[in-house]
Amino acid sequence: MAVFGITLRYVWFAVPMGGYFVGKYLDDQETLRMTNFRDKSKLYGPKYKAGDPPSWP
């Protein structure tokens, strides 16, 4: 039986795929947020001179 054209087969596909894409979006946003802290660690980071390229590509 379909409610508004949504069948059980669609739900078995859409729910896991929707969860995957939401999780990927959240992971990408966290990665984007953490890029603000690259080469900024005073404890572990080396001493950089002005104009040195960053250590990450």
Average pLDDT metric: 84
Could you give a short account of the major beta sheet? none
Q: State the total count of DSSP E strands.
A: 0
Proportion of beta-strand residues: under 5%
Helix and strand pattern: H
Alpha plus pi helix count? 1
Instruction: Return residue spans where pLDDT drops below 50 for at least 5 consecutive residues.
Output: none
Task: Work out the helicity level.
Answer: 40-55%
Radius of gyration: 22 Å
What distance lies between the first and last C-alpha atoms, to the nearest angstrom? 53 Å
**Structural class, from secondary structure content?**
mainly alpha
Tell the overall outline: rod-shaped
Question: Overview of this structure, please?
Answer:
With 57 residues, the protein is an all-alpha fold. The chain is 47% helix and 0% strand. The chain contains one helix and no strands. The longest helix is centred in the middle third of the chain and has 27 residues. The chain is rod-shaped and about 70 Å long. The chain starts with 7 loop residues before the first helix and ends in a 23-residue tail after the last helix.
